[in-house]
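Why run this: before we spend reagent on co-expression, it is cheaper to look at a predicted model of the complex and decide which construct boundaries make sense. The entries below are exactly what would go into the expression plan.
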Amino acid sequence: MIFLRRQVPLLITLITGIVFAAQYYVPHPASEQMLTSVTKWLQIIGGFALVLGVSSLFHVHAVKIRRKEAGWGYSFVLYVGMLGTIAVGFWTNGKEAIDGTMTAFGWIYNFMMVPLQGTMFAILAFFIASAAYRSFRARSREAAVLLIAAVIVMMGRVPLGEYLIPISGDLSQWILNVLNASVRRAILIGVSLGTVALSIKIIFGKERSYLGGGKE
Amino acid sequence: MTFAERMLKIDRRIIFLVIGICTLLPLLYPVGLPIRISQEVRGVYDHIESLPEGSVFLLSLDFDPASKPELQPQSISLLRHAFRKNLRVIAMTLWVSGTGLADQIVTQVAREMGKESGKDYVFLGWSPGGTAVIINMGQDLYGAFPADYNGKPTKGLSVLQGVASLRDVNYAVSLGAGNPGVEAWYVFGKDKYKFELGGGCTGVMAPGLYPLLRSGQINGLIGGLRGAAEYETLMDQKGRAIAGMDAQSATHLAIIVLVIMCNLFYFSSRNRARQQGG
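The model came back. Tokens follow.
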């Protein structure tokens, strides 16, 4: 059992890791065909992952409802919403419109999901303004630099700011193109090198936490 | 409690009201301040302008309804531009929750421009796999999407004539609200399959994509509502983005004034505390 649970996954990771890292540099038709096949597997696994995610969500909220944990009413709403949408989705064959006429599934999408998601995102503006008022204070030199940069970028990104202070547009572009881009690039390079190091550790079996901590 | 201290603890509902008014008033009474075009947005516009008629243009609408106010105007402008140039348009999404919205946008603009599905454009819809879909399309487009969103087999569609994979795409633009989005299209698409790539994103994401822009990994970037308004200006078609810029101007200014006020009150109360302490 240990062989199946530990050695086999390590072996699969080692072989696929090396083969697909090398595949990128081998443009031979056989190599390309192998990539085509494997990406199809990935799409199929992606489909299964969706089912797994939905069933896991159902399970988590079913437990909450059964135990009547705090906020179980929200879990109930989630259940009703999900089951209702799935039922309507099956009934309309997953189509939001048939011959230009909106189906019930399309109605749920257009008049429930779209406004709900839009509202959630829109109220962020109010909370950001409130948070900025409460916490954006020049308590230190670093905070002052951040504050000045933020004000310049906010001015330079809107027509009214450019109208009031014409140089704010160019200053804002300079901050984004030079300061921001260079710092972001440094972070990106660091993250990428870290990812490469971690991948090597996973491929060669040094990092095994992805196998889980079950009993051996 | 001093005035400054009281102001620092102001009821947040007053701030909400200020932001609400600053959003609503410019929408009701637009001012229409001129919008300056940035090099990033011009990069995308100029590249589409340079494409010859019949070129293959792929638009990936990688967002959901939460980002609709910023990315829908970008999508509409890009599609109008592509259709006006008589490009062959392949539209798709990597976000399952954005499929219906993407379909509506593509269908609406195509109808407005008198374009026919299957002949002038195709909406492929969504396919599971996230970034793997990009690789799959790079290897075999028909394997990744055997049928379009309406269930029509993709093989044989006149709009896809001569298109076997992403290698045959002349220009691709990803309008991303997160992952998978612009970065995924670069890493898994452009780098291997060698097509030109442009990007569009929400305002909060734009600073994170500047490194890709400066290094030429993407040839242009439409950032947030401002980017969409710039594109509408270039297209000379006033739309939702230009209409929203006045509201964005007013809210930005309101936040700046609030931040300055809070700092004035903060320093005033700090100085007072020091004087009392010393």
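Chain A touches chain B through 58 residues (CB under 8 Å). The radius of gyration of chain A is 26 Å. Bring this page to Monday's planning discussion.
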